[in-house]
Amino acid sequence: MKFFSRKAAAASVVALGALAVVPAMAGPASATPSQCSVGHNLSLATSSCLGGTGEHRIVCFYTHHIPGVGTIIGYGPWKPVGETSSTYCPQDRVTNTFVEVR
């Protein structure tokens, strides 16, 4: 019976060792967009990114023109680096604008 216990213990150690190696293995490199900026032009907010890879989009929070309605969130389409994402965003009612990346 002792022989079986040693084998089971050895198998457990080997299995745990194999599981510890898996997270250490590197996957493919990925770089999110960088050098991103936000722009405003009357009722349009834009985002553009000049470096990295992946996609970005503009996100705009603004207050509705009817009191009591609250905050509206506008999302631009996902665009690759080098292209511009834009969404409706009235400049006089903006509460927050930022670039979202993936």
TrEMBL record:
Residues 1-26 form the signal peptide. Keywords: Signal. This is Secreted protein.
